[in-house]
Amino acid sequence: MNLILVCILIYILANLALAMALARKPKTESDYLLAGRSLGPWLATFSVFATWFGAETCIGASGEAYKHGLSGVITDPFGYALGIVLLGVFFAATLWKRGLVTMADLFRKRYGIGVERLAAIVMIPTSLLWAAAQIRAFGQVLASTSELGIFAAITLAAGVVIMYTAIGGMWADAITDLLQGIVLIIGVFALAVVLAMKGGFADLASLPAERLSIQGDRSWLQTIEIFSVPVLSSIAAQELISRVLAMRSPQLARSATITAGLVYLMVGLVPVALGLVAVQHLGTGVDPEQVLSRFAKENLSLPFYILFLGALVSAILSTLSGALLVAGSLAAHNVIMPLKPNLTEATKLRLNRSAVVFFGVLSYLIALSSESVYSLVQESAAFGSSGILVAMIFALWGERLGGAASAYGALIASLTVYVIGNYFYEFEYPYLTSLAAALLAYVLLIPFKRNHTVGRVSAA
User: Fold this and answer.
1) pLDDT for residue 25 is more than 90
2) What is the rounded radius of gyration, in angstroms, for the C-alpha atoms of the chain?
3) How many Å from the N-terminal Cα to the C-terminal Cα in the chain?
4) Does the pTM exceed 0.85?
């Protein structure tokens, strides 16, 4: 076992030990899923930032910039950063004031229990795919730094994160996010310093115009299609919204989310800059997914290279734990618990922890069968999110417009059109088409509005 792997394993075990130390802190379901709604400024900001800043932001952004120039990275970091900021500006405080535990609770209060369950079922695959992408990336990092095979590495990665997420819930997630976010920022900016010392930022000024074109060889409508996925899916993402709901006040929910989005952009620009000038430093013909790690390995001393790998592992751990917690909470809180009223808080905790373990194992199996991290991330962002967004906007600001029929129509139309357009008929603009279908379905079914009876009081 080499020194690099030993250091990574020590860091991983430190996260696990911290989660175990916090295992007794959650006493209620709200404690477990929302940390008792008590996250302060530091925990709140770093939790949003670290949850959304995954391995694909480092590895994928540098690789896409290397291959395609600036046009390859409009989704990450630019699209996702904008989505986080928009969530903070327009949605965070309003969502916080609703006293929700999960995003699906909003749909129950506005449209009824049936829509709540359907929304949860639509959102769970998004979190599963997102978690699987991180598990696969984690396994690849371990495999590349040791003699472990990819199967053993992915198995080890999945086991550790499933364990510490199930044990500690949002408390462990938020506190480890703070630790992981700090390590991540230090590691990325260590790369930035080395890049600057090697003249990398000066090389940016001499890049040809086509490398700095946002549009590239795409049409403007194609650019909007690609850009809309990260922006709109981030606004409707339960992983981010759960962090918003866990903060201690609506004012903090707004300011911390906006700050996290700006930090996301600032840190995410470093892999982009490196990818843009990597040809001058690494030459052509490099595997795009290896650009960042190869530059780090060739230019960082061993201590700083280990720090860089720690940053990469931090990005993966924080995103993975958040996705597993969301998948478990949607299944336990919004699908199973309505069928079993009057559960004790202890039983609710056990149910949520069991759901995290179940979906962790399922994500692990998906990771083993997938061919790439990038494909998993793309699918997780686009799958069903347009219908969730439409129903969410009308639930928040269109109280008199539409009811359960409209919400059902938006969710079903969004999912159906996207699956058909993306997998069967290869629509040129599958996401925008699914968004238009969701909005049209919601509006057309407004006349069929009827009152519903809320079948369960919010756990908030």
Assistant:
1) no
2) 21
3) 48
4) yes
Q: Where are the domains of the chain?
A: 3-370
326 with 34: CB under 8 angstroms? no
CA distance 455 to 31: 23
Tokens of 175: 């506190």
Q: How many CA atoms lie within 13 A of 238 on its CB side?
A: 36
CATH topology for 3-370 is Sodium/glucose cotransporter (1.20.1730)
Give 8-14's long-range contacts (Cβ < 8 A, gap of 24+).
8/141, 8/142, 8/145, 8/306, 8/309, 8/310, 8/313, 11/183, 11/310, 11/313, 12/160, 12/313, 12/317, 13/160
Residue 398: other Cβ atoms inside 10 A: 15
pLDDT tens by residue, 273-294:
998 888 888 888 877 777 888 8
Residues in the chain: 460
3-class DSSP state for residue 247?
Answer: strand
Q: Report pLDDT digits (tens) over 106-121.
A: 999 999 999 999 999 9
Label residue 339 exposed, middle or buried (CB < 10 Å: 0-12, 13-18, 19+).
exposed
Does 376 score more than 60 pLDDT? no
Beta bridge partners of 247: 39
- Please answer whether residues 83 and 262 qualify as being in contact, where contact means their C-beta atoms are separated by less than 8 angstroms: no
* Rounded average pLDDT over 228-243: 91
**Residue in the block written with tokens 């009223």:** 341
Are the CB atoms for 104 and 119 separated by under 8 Å?
yes
